[in-house]
């Protein structure tokens, strides 16, 4: 869906008048809630140069990182590197267990900081690969840049079209916030969240 088409739809369904100046930020807010659902079509793999580092600032290296893509069938071993042509995995764990295993192949993520452990003497880890869910759901009008906030008429949304109606409904809901008392708002947001979950269930 083009951002221009979205805004035209919102204008028709809301009041028919001019949209508020805050429409970009409202759209960003609702997109953020959709991104938290960890959309399957927004799974990406980041490559990170290791060198002598064991700590990495994801806010700089992978600015669209939202959450690690875990694999239960692989015992949550998601982050990996290649030894020859074979992938070797780090076990992602909590910080306490990570600290207690300085010589094992472990990884942990605290906020936007990724840390890895590996045995002393290992020197062939040049690059690690990080499967993750992206929080960027907008493709800029330039056709190249992904971003968090829509702003240009030619911007395109990157979520599956199954979310089109829910996205429109979410923005309309926030546009009506001042008209609803707290109980009405709570009920409306709960119903909207249920609609999102039902879409994810059938994806």
What would your notes on this structure say?
The chain is α+β, with helices and mostly antiparallel strands and 203 residues long. It has two domains: 102 residues, no CATH class; 95 residues, no CATH class. 33% of the residues lie in helices and 24% in strands. A four-stranded mixed beta sheet has the order 2-8-7-6. The protein has a three-stranded antiparallel beta sheet with strand order 1-9-3. It has a three-stranded antiparallel beta sheet with strand order 11-10-12, with no helix packed on it. Strand 10 and strand 11 form a beta hairpin. The protein is elongated, with a radius of gyration of 21 Å. The mean pLDDT is 91.
Essential attributes:
4-stranded mixed β-sheet; 203 residues; 2 domains; 6 helices; alpha+beta; 33% helix
Mind sketching the topology for me?
Blueprint: H1 3-14, H2 23-35, E1 43-49, E2 55-57, H3 58-61, E3 65-68, E4 80-83, E5 86-89, E6 91-92, H4 95-99, E7 106-110, E8 113-117, E9 127-134, E10 138-139, E11 146-147, E12 156-157, H5 164-175, H6 182-201
Parallel strand pairs: 6-7
Antiparallel strand pairs: 1-9, 2-8, 3-9, 4-5, 7-8, 10-11, 10-12
Helix pairs in contact: 1-5, 2-5, 5-6
Short structural description:
The protein has helices at residues 3-14, 23-35, 58-61, 95-99, 164-175, 182-201, and strands at 43-49, 55-57, 65-68, 80-83, 86-89, 91-92, 106-110, 113-117, 127-134, 138-139, 146-147, 156-157. It is of the alpha+beta class. Strands 2-8-7-6 form a four-stranded mixed sheet. A three-stranded antiparallel sheet has the order 1-9-3. Strands 11-10-12 form a three-stranded antiparallel sheet, with no helix packed on it.
């Amino acid at each position: 869906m083009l951002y221009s088409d979205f805004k035209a739809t919102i204008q028709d369904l809301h009041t028919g008048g001019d949209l508020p100046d805050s429409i970009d930020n409202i759209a960003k807010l609702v997109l953020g809630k959709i991104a938290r659902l960890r959309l399957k079509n927004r799974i990406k793999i980041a490559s990170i140069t290791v060198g002598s580092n064991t700590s990495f600032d994801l806010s700089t290296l992978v600015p669209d990182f939202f959450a690690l893509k875990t694999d239960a069938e692989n015992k949550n071993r998601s982050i990996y590197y290649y030894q020859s042509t074979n992938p070797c995995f780090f076990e992602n764990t909590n910080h306490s267990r990570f600290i207690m295993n300085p010589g094992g192949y472990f990884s942990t993520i605290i906020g936007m900081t990724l840390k890895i452990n590996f045995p002393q003497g290992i020197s062939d880890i040049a690059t690690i690969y990080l499967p993750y869910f992206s929080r960027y759901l907008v493709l800029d009008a330039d056709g190249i840049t992904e971003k968090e906030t829509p702003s240009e008429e030619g911007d395109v949304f990157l979520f599956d079209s199954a979310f089109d109606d829910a996205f429109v409904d979410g923005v309309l809901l926030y546009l009506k916030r001042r008209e609803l008392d707290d109980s009405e708002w709570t009920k409306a947001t709960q119903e909207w969240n249920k609609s999102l979950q039902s879409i994810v269930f059938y994806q």
